[in-house]
């Protein structure tokens, strides 16, 4: 029983379920199971396997595909002896009732409505040519945009003219200030030149005065000497006259 239980657990493993039946049987026989135990393990694994769902219709109706019959171990042994394989029977087709058809109709209607709504909202405006009213609206919109652009250009031109006028006025003021500065610099330069000329003339006059002072002193000294000599002579003459009397 332990070997059979272990074999059932082995056969229920999802990784082992995809392996060929011959390999699974050979593996179980290599573990010491008899043909009867292998057949019993296969039967238990098949009985314990959960039925697989086949879709929304099978879940709603409760129908499931017929379970394929398990290949009996005896038939497998006979097939191995005769070098022939017994193919498994295909699963039976699920039966459908009015609920399945109702679900299919609802799903089909929903898909059709979604396709129609999508085509009407996104595809039809792209392929449908515009009518006269739309063309007029587009024309009016373009005209409004053109007028707006024209107004903006006019405003830009006006601003540019005002800026140019302001720059011209400012340039004139700057030129006037520069002329005044140049005039002031010229006046200062002329005054400086006149001051230098006056200083040079004063220097020459001082030099002349410096040269004339010794001469004047010499002349005054000579004149004083002559005056003193004349006075002495007169005094002598007067003294002589007085003595003669």
From TrEMBL:
GO biological process, one term: protein import into peroxisome matrix, docking
Gene3D superfamilies: Winged helix-like DNA-binding domain superfamily/Winged helix DNA-binding domain
Protein name (record): Peroxisomal membrane protein PEX14
Record's function text: Component of the PEX13-PEX14 docking complex, a translocon channel that specifically mediates the import of peroxisomal cargo proteins bound to PEX5 receptor. The PEX13-PEX14 docking complex forms a large import pore which can be opened to a diameter of about 9 nm. Mechanistically, PEX5 receptor along with cargo proteins associates with the PEX14 subunit of the PEX13-PEX14 docking complex in the cytosol, leading to the insertion of the receptor into the organelle membrane with the concomitant translocation of the cargo into the peroxisome matrix.
Compositional bias per record (Low complexity), positions renumbered to this chain: 38-58
Domain Peroxisome membrane anchor protein Pex14p N-terminal: 2-44
Lineage, opening ranks: Eukaryota, Fungi, Dikarya, Ascomycota, Taphrinomycotina
A Pfam family recorded for this sequence: Pex14_N
InterPro entries: PEX14, Pex14_N, WH-like_DNA-bd_sf
Main localisation: membrane
Stretch list, region Disordered: 38-74
């Amino acid at each position: 029983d332990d070997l059979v239980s272990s074999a059932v657990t082995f056969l229920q493993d999802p990784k082992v379920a995809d392996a060929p039946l011959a390999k699974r049987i050979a593996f179980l026989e290599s573990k010491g199971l008899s043909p009867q135990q292998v057949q019993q393990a296969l039967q238990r694994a098949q009985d314990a396997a959960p039925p697989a769902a086949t879709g929304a219709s099978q879940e709603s109706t409760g129908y499931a595909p017929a379970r394929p019959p398990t290949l009996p171990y005896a038939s497998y042994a006979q097939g191995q002896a005769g070098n022939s394989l017994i193919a498994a029977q295909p699963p039976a087709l699920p039966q459908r009732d009015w609920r399945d058809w109702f679900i299919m109709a609802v799903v089909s209607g929903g898909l059709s409505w979604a396709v129609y709504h999508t085509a009407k909202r996104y595809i039809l405006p792209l392929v449908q040519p515009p009518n006269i009213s739309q063309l007029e609206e587009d024309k009016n919109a373009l005209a409004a945009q053109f007028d707006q652009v024209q107004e903006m250009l006019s405003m830009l031109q006006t601003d540019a003219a005002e800026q140019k006028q302001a720059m011209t006025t400012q340039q004139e003021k700057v030129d006037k200030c520069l002329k005044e500065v140049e005039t002031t610099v010229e006046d200062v330069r002329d005054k400086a030149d006149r001051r230098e000329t006056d200083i040079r003339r004063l220097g020459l006059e001082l030099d002349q005065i410096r040269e004339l002072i010794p001469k004047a002193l010499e002349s005054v000294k000579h004149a004083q000497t002559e005056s003193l000599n004349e006075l002495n002579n007169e005094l002598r003459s007067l003294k002589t006259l007085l003595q003669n009397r």
